[in-house]
Amino acid sequence: MKRTFTTFGMVFIAVGTAVGQVASHAPTVFSQPAPGSSPTMVSMTAVGKTVARVNGSVLTDADLVREEYSIFPYARQHNGLPKELAPQIRDGALKMIIFEELVYQEALRRKMTVGPAKMAQAETEFKKQFATPEEFNALLNSEFHGSMDQLRVKIRRSLLIEAMLKQEIDEKSAVSVAEVRAYYDKNAARFARPESYIFQTISVLPPEKATAAQLQEARKRAEDDLRQAKATKSAQEFGLLAEKISDDDYRVMMGQHKAIPVGELAPQVLKALSTMKPDDTSDLIPMDQAYTIVHLNEHVPAGKVKFEDTKVQLTKEVQERKTNQLRAELDKKLRHNAKIEEM
Fold first, then answer.
1. Residue 206: which domain range?
2. Total domains present in the chain
3. In whole angstroms, what separates CA 34 from the centre of its chain?
4. What tens digit of pLDDT does each residue of 98-145 get?
5. What pTM does this model have?
6. What pLDDT does residue 242 have?
7. Same domain membership, residue 96 and residue 24
8. Quick one: 58 and 111 in the same domain?
9. Which residues of 56-91 are buried (b: 16+ CB within 10 A; e: fewer)?
């Protein structure tokens, strides 16, 4: 996803005293830690060390840390980066800050400028980030030796990057309805819709290695659940009952299942659903030693997702694809004759 600039083009990070540059392109995609795990964290500190030179201009670990926070904002509350993600995040952050520097240098080469009114507005918006003048002055002193001129250089830099990207990417990435339709027609298989059912369930699940008495109790309970389910008159009523009595995990969603293709349904469930009409509730469906009751919400016949139904989302997707392509082309073009040293 393309990351956009704020009107002032800069963000200050609460941890440490670094001034952040707004990133100009999508972060590197990385895998997440396993749910429930407690990853070892890698600290994020900056000492002014050079991490790259771009046509002689120095980028430091302060620039890198700012970008890492932008990619992984949870680093503040976790006091660092997850160890297993840190190399990927840092590699992505390094690519970002190099790309931004190349874009900035190209803007200067083209003699692009920022008007006084826009600078004044950006400066005003930037100061609004701070609760008190004292907070702003503390940052100004720590980062810019008390110099508003140095701060304005950073703001102007961000605005030039923003203007350059608007010219080279944003204005060229707009897509027409005809382009979106052409993508839809070319990728027809993607929009094929298999026959499927949308339904809710109430399940009775006996313990593993259940005794004969436990199985008998499960059957008795399932019959009682069926009596209550048959008494419901709507998906809402069935769902509220599922929340109260169902053993399966879908109870937290009122028993609701998404559209499931017929090829993915258990044969006994499909057999029951195929004889039902919307808002019908099935009889007990044996599932090994368990029992399931289904409430049919909708039978979706095989067909194709209509263009009108997917146009909005597909437009965003096609535009994002075009944006990423333009960004990659610009990156390649700017790197072609550049001297880039990564430390």
1. 195-301
2. 2
3. 17
4. 999 999 999 999 999 999 999 999 999 999 989 999 999 998 898 888
5. 0.61
6. 96
7. yes
8. yes
9. eeebbbbbbbbbbbbbbeebeeeebbbebbbebbbe
